[in-house]
Amino acid sequence: MPPSRSTAAGELPELLTAQLRLRGFHLNDAAEVQRLAGDARVAATTANIPHPYPDGAAAQWIGGHLEAFQAGTAIALAITRRSDARLLGTVSLTQVSMRHARAELGYWIGVEYWGQGHCTAAAAALIDWAQRVWGLSRVCARCLASNPASARVLEKLGFAQEGRLCLHERRGHRFEDLLLFGRNSPDRNSRQRC
């Protein structure tokens, strides 16, 4: 993977893969974020995206990214295609703890871009950056048990399922199980499992 492009202090990095450019969101991305995330099929696969997606929510979400990054508590990057700069989705690390060298991975991708490997490539690039720059050695992730595609992304990235929270998330009128995944860098400790 090509290295990240250098940025001024405090600015979100730009990360490149063979087909993708990960960059900070701009407020003019809000309409496309709302269109992509507002699709009921995207919301149904996540624990955090509401449906219907409220007007103004995308701009508010984007507006908090730089401050969270500068505080070292989160990073959220737009997943775009290098060929035409089209916005495809997002990849993020939240609940960053520098003290504990860990974070939680999150991502979503627009329906028309499902099954093309974009989430896997984007997440791999962001995790690699966080290990090199922030020194993170553990990343965890969650996904709904009803979303096997997300679980496959995590497995391709080397995550292991570490638990299951039964009937933990309300989706519409139903409660769903939440799967818990984790990935430790080999140098974290010799102990890989709880």
Word description of this protein:
The protein is of the alpha+beta class and 194 residues long. The chain has 6 helices and 8 strands. The protein has an 8-stranded mixed sheet with strand order 1-2-3-4-5-6-8-7, with helices on both faces. Helix 1 packs across helix 3 (57-63). The relative contact order is 0.14.
Instruction: Name the structural class.
Output: alpha+beta
Give me the side-by-side strand order of the main sheet: 1-2-3-4-5-6-8-7
Terminal Cα span: 32 Å
- Assembly state: single chain
Q: Would you count the extended β strands for me?
A: 8
Main sheet specs: 8 strands, mixed
- Helix tally equals 6
Which percent band covers the strand fraction? 25-35%
Low-confidence stretches: none
Task: Describe how the helices and strands are arranged.
Layout: E1 15-16, E2 20-23, H1 30-37, H2 40-43, H3 57-63, H4 65-71, E3 75-81, E4 87-97, E5 102-109, H5 118-134, E6 138-144, H6 148-156, E7 160-171, E8 174-184
Parallel strand pairs: 5-6
Antiparallel strand pairs: 1-2, 2-3, 3-4, 4-5, 6-8, 7-8
Characteristic key phrases:
single chain; 194 residues; alpha+beta; eight-stranded mixed beta sheet; 8 strands; globular
Summarize this, please?
By secondary structure, the protein is an alpha+beta fold.
